[in-house]
C-alpha cells in the first residue's frame, strides 16, 4: 500500500510564500517522477510541476519563475516552494507519484490534497 502525505498548505497574503511537502511511504518499486497538481473550485485538476527521479523538471507556464520543485529520492519526498503567490493560485494541491523506470511507469498514486488559499 503506497501512501502520500502532504503538508504545508494554508492561508497566505498575495505576494507571500508557502512550501508544500509530500512524503511517500509503502512498497515502491522505483520512482519515475513525483509532482504537484492543483484543482480550484469548478476547474479541472491541472499540472503545477513535476520532477523526474533524475531531476528533470516541468512547470506550468503560470508558475514558472515563482515555484520551485525538488525531490529527495532516498526519502521519497517532493517539495514545492511557492513564492510570489497570487489569488489565482488558490486551490487544493495534490501530490502525485508515478512508480516505474526512467522512461515508463506502471502505477500512479495521489495524496489527499492540501488547501492553499491566497488572499488579495
State the distance separating the first and last CA atoms: 40 Å
SSE topology string: EEEEEEEEEEE
| Proportion in β-strands | over 45%
What class would the helix/strand composition place it in? mainly beta
Largest sheet: 7 strands, mixed
| Bulk shape | globular
Mean pLDDT: 96
User: Low-confidence parts, pLDDT < 50 over ≥5 residues?
Assistant: none
What is the count of helical runs? 0
Gyration radius, to the nearest Å? Answer: 14 Å
**Helicity, as a percent range:** under 10%
Record field, number of beta strands: 11
What do these coordinates show?
The protein is an all-beta fold and 120 residues long. 0% of the residues lie in helices and 58% in strands. It contains no helices and eleven strands. It has strands at residues 3-7, 10-13, 18-25, 31-39, 46-52, 57-59, 67-72, 77-82, 91-100, 105-110, 114-119. Strands 2, 4, 5, 6, 9, 10 and 11 form a seven-stranded mixed beta sheet that branches. A four-stranded antiparallel beta sheet has the order 1-3-8-7, with no helix packed on it. A hairpin with a 4-residue loop joins strand 7 (67-72) and strand 8 (77-82). The model has no long low-confidence stretch (mean pLDDT 96).
Amino acid at each position: 500500500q503506497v501512501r502520500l502525505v502532504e503538508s504545508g498548505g494554508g492561508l497566505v497574503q498575495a505576494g507571500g510564500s508557502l512550501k508544500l511537502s509530500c512524503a511517500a511511504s509503502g512498497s515502491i518499486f522505483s520512482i519515475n517522477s513525483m509532482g504537484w497538481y492543483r484543482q480550484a473550485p469548478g476547474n479541472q485538476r491541472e499540472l503545477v510541476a513535476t520532477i523526474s527521479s533524475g531531476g528533470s523538471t516541468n512547470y506550468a507556464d503560470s508558475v514558472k519563475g515563482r515555484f520551485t520543485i525538488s525531490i529527495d529520492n532516498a526519502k521519497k519526498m517532493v517539495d514545492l516552494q511557492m513564492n510570489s503567490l497570487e489569488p489565482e493560485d488558490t486551490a487544493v494541491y495534490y501530490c502525485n507519484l508515478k512508480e516505474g523506470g526512467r522512461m515508463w511507469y506502471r502505477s500512479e498514486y495521489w495524496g489527499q490534497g492540501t488547501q492553499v488559499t491566497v488572499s488579495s
